[in-house]
């Protein structure tokens, strides 16, 4: 059965944005989604997030799906660059992602600068890579997400929602995420039926 892991963004929590919607949708269909709880500090440290991810993520396997949003995309790629050396996963979905400094919000620059991302490894060890972005994102310019997709040879999806995919901008559902992960999910009921 697929293990779905969600890594939230800067100063966020599992109770915000479209994360509760995804969790409800998955529960209705008998899928398990693990939305991690990471330090919401305005001065986040990558080492702290990395340790928290380590504590909350089970063993990755070829059915694992990792979804990350905004600053969480940096944390996810850094984490996976260390943990996929001898392991493949099914899917990586990055929402409002970027690869380096954005030229704003200097509080996150040390976090971004500390990240070590091996794009070649990620391309090799992740079966399906997706980047979802919005033309109306004022926090992460679309060109940054497009560049991220190019770095990963990822499928690029322009979302209908015009913003940074946060609830304060009206984004409490993100159907594009569900559409891309659904083909890779096997529910507990389906798994039992196959045995």
From TrEMBL:
SUPFAM superfamilies (alphabetical): alpha/beta-Hydrolases
Example GO molecular function: hydrolase activity
Pfam family, one: Ser_hydrolase
Chain ranges passing through the membrane: none
InterPro entries the record matches: AB_hydrolase_fold (IPR029058), RBBP9/YdeN (IPR010662)
Protein name as catalogued: Serine hydrolase family protein
Native organism: Acinetobacter kookii
Lineage summary: Bacteria, Pseudomonadati, Pseudomonadota, Gammaproteobacteria, Moraxellales
